Amino acid sequence: MADLDIWDRQAFEARLVEIDDVEVCAELCCAYFVAQGYQRVSVYLLRSGLLRRVASVGYWQVFDGFPLVEDTLDLTRSEARRDASEWWQGRETSSPIFADGEFIGALDVEAEGSIDAALRNEMSEVGKLLGLRVTELGGLKDPSGWKLLADNAPIFANTVNEPRAIRNALEVATALTGLDSAMFVADLPGGAFTPADSMGPTSNLLTALPMETLAVLSSWVQGPRSCYTVGDPTAIGSEGYEVLADAGLSSLAVSAVDAADSRLGFLLVGSTTAELNDHHQVEQLEVLAALLGSAIRNSRHLGELLSQTRRDPLTGLGHSQAFDEKLSSIRHNQETLNAVFMIDIDHFKLVNDTLGHDEGDRQLKAVAAGLRSALRDDDSVFRIGGDEFAVVVPVDDELQARAIGERIMQAVTESGQKVSVGGAFAFSDDIGHRDVFVRADEALYLAKRRGRNQLVMTEEIGIN
Questions:
Q1: What does the pLDDT profile of the chain (464 residues) look like in tens digits?
Q2: What's the pTM value of the predicted model, to 2 decimals?
Q3: Fold that domain 145-307 belongs to in CATH
Q4: 3-state secondary structure of 260
Q5: 318 with 382: CB under 8 angstroms?
Q6: What DSSP line would sit under 45-62, residue for residue?
Q7: Which end of the chain is more exposed for a tag (fewer CB within 10 A), N or C?
Q8: What are phi and psi of 331, to 5 degrees?
Q9: Other beta carbons less than 10 A from residue 190's beta carbon
Q10: How many alpha carbons lie under 13 Å from residue 405 in its C-beta half-sphere?
Q11: Rounded Cα gap, residues 158 and 156, in angstroms
Q12: Where in the chain do CATH 3.30.450.40 domains reside?
């Protein structure tokens, strides 16, 4: 563009409307300001939420990929540009670029002298012309190939939700390869496999694949990182592909999803019509599988850490904070009747004083095991104090609640301990989420005053 005589606005506008490529239009804008005597000019356009340099002149160091901070349009601000300093103030300015009323980028100019109003006005006018041309051309092309991977790499790095990471990987995989369907198959203990998620018009076919076929597909990528079809897949015999070919699948790419030398599963992309254009798409699929593997591992590690922080280290039960969060959640979901039980080991202080803390710890673990054995999998059991436990359980009515309370006592008795239990119901008109805790605690202390080793429900004693 530097050889074009576009110092005149009319020449610039005439040339701009002839160009049918957005990035070339941006280059023309840079050339126009260079012709006005400005040595450093750049155009940034928004792509995947980041301002990306699409054209620049006069730089030996380019800053790229800054986030748009609170709709910041000025690239000289420190929030958007990492090299901003006092030196730049008054020597660099940016002008926003809009398309159909939406912010899409910025034009940036640096000057040897100070920035004046004439330059800002000229930049504004050129930015408007570029925005109109971008609109006419349908906007910046969606990223593909390595650019698409680059845009999504930070997303995978910051994703701590495994299902979300898998869904994003499927969407990127179809965009990378041009194939219309994708599936992630997770490895299970014992050599089994299960489709974790799928998308696309042939997803029903993919998720219905028998275990034997999934095992063969997995074996294809045990040693190599990936495997894909070339030519006519029906013209040759390939073990495991018969089921796919019979269903009309004509293209297929499989890539292993590993993390820290551990197999997590594999990513499968296919189509009944389209074909892979070149081997670079498969290499990109391998990078995508590596990003997914890291995201899954990070998600699982974080889940383990969060689980550990929410559990009592001695018994493995949820601790007092987890119990408080549970009370808060049931208060905000009153579609189900919930009963809350407070449980206290009888004469536990005497155990610690006479038999020692090791015996006390053994009894605490025995009570925890008894509570787990008495309750259903979806019940929540907590150790909220030294010898105090709590249970939150959904129930149908008062009769079922009492039966659960008695089952708790029986299970703990069989473990060799004796406990007092107080039970209460969570009501929708409770002022605070801990109101039910207070009622259950009152019932517990009444059980103790009555001689311990018994269950008291608040409904029996008129506590509201």
A1: 444 455 688 889 999 999 999 999 999 999 999 988 888 999 999 888 888 999 999 988 888 887 765 544 555 554 444 344 343 455 788 888 988 888 889 999 988 777 788 888 999 999 999 999 999 998 888 888 999 999 999 889 888 899 999 999 999 999 999 999 999 999 988 888 999 999 999 888 888 888 888 998 899 898 888 988 876 666 655 666 777 777 778 888 999 999 887 889 999 998 888 787 778 899 999 999 999 999 999 888 887 777 666 788 888 888 888 888 888 888 766 677 889 999 998 888 888 778 888 888 888 898 898 888 888 765 689 998 888 999 999 888 888 989 999 999 888 888 788 889 999 988 876 767 788 888 999 999 898 888 888 899 987 655 55
A2: 0.66
A3: Beta-Lactamase (3.30.450)
A4: coil
A5: yes
A6: EEETTEEEEEEEES-SS-
A7: C
A8: -70, -30
A9: 5
A10: 29
A11: 5
A12: 9-136, 145-307
- Distance spanning both ends of the chain, measured CA to CA: 82
Nearest to 91, CA basis, from 74, 116, 66, 126: 116
Contacts of 447 (CB under 8 A, 6+ apart): 420, 421, 422, 454, 455, 456
Q: What is each CA distance from 248 to 202, 216, 452, in whole angstroms? A: 9, 18, 71
Write down the CATH number for the domain with range 320-461.
Answer: 3.30.70.270
Scanning the structure block, which residue is given the tokens 């801990």? 434
State phi, psi for 269 to the nearest 5 degrees.
-130, 135
Report which of 397, 345, 349, 346 is spatially closest to residue 371, judged by C-alpha positions: 345
Which two structure tokens, joined as six digits, stand for 390? Answer: 């709590």
The CATH number, out of the four listed (3.40.50.620, 2.130.10.10, 3.30.450.40, 2.40.128.90), of the domain defined by the range 9-136? 3.30.450.40
Residue 91: Cβ-neighbour burial (10 angstroms; 0-12, 13-18, 19+): middle
CA dihedral 217, 223, 228, 233 (to 10 degrees): -60
Question: If 0-12 CB within 10 Å is exposed, 13-18 middle and 19+ buried, where does residue 409 land?
Answer: buried
Per the structure block, which two tokens stand in for 20?
């049918």
What is the location of CATH 3.30.70.270 in the chain? Answer: 320-461
